[in-house]
Design a protein that fits this description.
GO terms for molecular function: ATP binding; ATP hydrolysis activity. With about 450 residues, the chain is an alpha/beta fold. The protein has helices at about 20-25, 65-75, 95-105, 120-130, 135-150, 165-180, 195-215, 225-230, 250-255, 260-265, 275-280, 290-300, 320-330, 355-360, 380-390, 410-415, 420-425; strands at about 5-15, 40-50, 55-60, 80-85, 90, 105-110, 185-190, 215-220, 235-240, 240-245, 285, 305-310, 315-320, 345-350, 365-370, 375-380.
Length: about 450
């Protein structure tokens, strides 16, 4: 079972002269605008749990309350009502000294505008959390250099922050948070001050670091494409409330309301959806024990000139063409192994759509999709790949195979006409459970 690293329960934050009265009225059903006479409600009844090791993204437009929430998670903002726990321990209603210990030992923060100490070198900035803990100077310097190398800043330790570019300064901010070696990283619009190219580079580096370090990260952003790229799960905020929590695929394909639907309409789907999201059940395919007749039936039913061949564990062995299968039938042979051709392309079910276009073009069959054990779990016809990216003039293009399938009459002749029920049963192809978006392969 997943372990909860951080949890927020029914959080409210109201700025103004009478926050308690505002919360009472909000709980009674009044709106954000209704309570303006007693306070400004920045966060309203927000609840979520962050699993250990995930990147949890909170996103929304300016004024939605996302930056206020992240400051409530480490006690920078007092909580008007509700509770935050870190590893099961509350941070609300505790002495200030205990709160400082939690910030020092369990939660680090990366700010939008770097927040580096300008008079300290890069290495000293990174080592600062260790200095607060009383770590010896030589040890903290060695640790700082190690982490600087990890974020791509080896050799820059003796420079001042002013000598670095914006992207490099943000790397120092991330390195400083990593040096603290806390379980949780809070990142408030950490990349929004960077230009687009550097921003994308930093996003990719964060994903690479997370794969190695498995920190628990709460990331705040107003950029939906950034949220989709980084987040294991995303909380969408509007007017102080969380309106939907889900995976990037959930948010994109099943928006909770019109607001979320409008929000995601311009998302780059090719960077979010994966092969596993759009694949169809694997047809045409035949186990290597099925023989040429079973292969021909599969190709005939799918109007295809070739079929995938798998072993008994559904691992791909190769492809067989209808012409080669007909030759085997005419020779009276029952094994496909002598005519197998290599699989031209296959992709992992976790591969994003943006990386599927070249393989799909190069594959004479619908693109094979495999799991972590290299088993065939689905296929993606080119028309399905195009349709997954949204409606457009090419969404109904036909798939053109390098070699058209044989006429049915020629296949029937090779099979000797209608086969008996016994023969059909003997050569039956096992069924693989279809995904939710099952469709016919053409």
């Amino acid at each position: 079972m997943s372990e909860i690293a951080l949890e927020a329960r029914n959080l409210y934050k109201v700025f103004g002269r009478n926050p308690a009265q505002a919360v009472k009225r909000l709980k009674a059903g009044e709106t954000r605008d209704d309570v303006l006479d007693v306070g400004t409600a920045a966060v309203i009844d927000a609840s979520f749990a962050v699993q250990r090791g995930e990147i949890f993204v909170i996103m929304g437009l300016s004024g939605s309350g996302k930056s206020t929430i992240i400051r409530m998670l480490n006690g920078l903002h007092d909580i008007t009502d509700g509770e935050v726990t870190i590893g099961g321990d509350p941070i609300t209603g505790i002495p200030r000294g205990r709160l400082r210990e939690i910030r020092r030992d369990r939660v680090s923060m990366v700010f939008q505008h770097f927040a580096l100490l300008p008079h300290r070198t890069v290495a000293d900035n990174v080592a600062y959390p260790l200095e607060l803990r009383g770590v010896a100077k030589a040890d903290r310097r060695a640790r700082a250099e190690e982490i600087l190398a990890m974020v791509g800043l080896a050799g820059w330790g003796d420079k001042l922050p002013s000598e670095l570019s914006g992207g490099m300064q943000q790397r120092v901010g991330i390195a400083r948070a990593l040096a603290a070696d806390t379980d949780i990283l809070l990142m408030d619009e950490a990349f929004s001050a960077l230009d687009p190219l550097i921003r994308r580079e930093m996003q990719e580096q964060l994903v690479e670091l997370q794969a190695k370090l498995q920190k628990t990260i709460v990331f705040i952003t107003h950029d939906l494409n950034e949220a989709m790229f980084l987040g294991d799960r995303i909380a969408v905020m509007r007017d102080g409330r969380i309106v939907q929590i889900g995976t990037p695929e959930d948010i994109l394909t099943d928006p909770a309301n019109d607001y979320v639907e409008q929000f995601v309409q311009d998302v780059d789907r090719a960077r979010v959806l994966t092969a596993g999201n759009v694949m169809e059940r694997p047809r045409p395919y035949v186990p290597d024990t099925g023989g040429p007749r079973a292969a021909l039936r599969q190709m005939k039913d799918a109007y295809s000139s070739a079929a995938y061949v798998t072993d008994r564990d559904r691992k791909l062995m190769g492809i067989v063409t209808d012409r080669d299968a007909v030759k085997l039938v005419r020779k009276g042979e029952n094994s496909l192994r002598s005519i197998l051709k290599p699989v031209p392309q296959s992709v992992s079910q976790d591969e994003t759509l943006m990386n599927l276009f070249v393989p799909a073009v190069e594959s004479p069959l619908p693109l094979a999709v495999t799991d972590e054990h290299d088993r065939l779990v689905g296929v993606i016809p080119r028309v399905t790949l195009l349709a997954a990216l949204g409606p457009g003039p090419n969404a109904t293009e036909e798939i053109t195979l390098p070699m058209p399938p044989l006429p049915h009459a020629e296949i029937d002749a090779a099979l000797g006409g209608a086969e008996s029920a016994h023969e059909a049963s003997a050569n039956e192809v096992p069924t693989i459970k279809a995904p939710a978006n099952e469709g016919e392969v053409r």
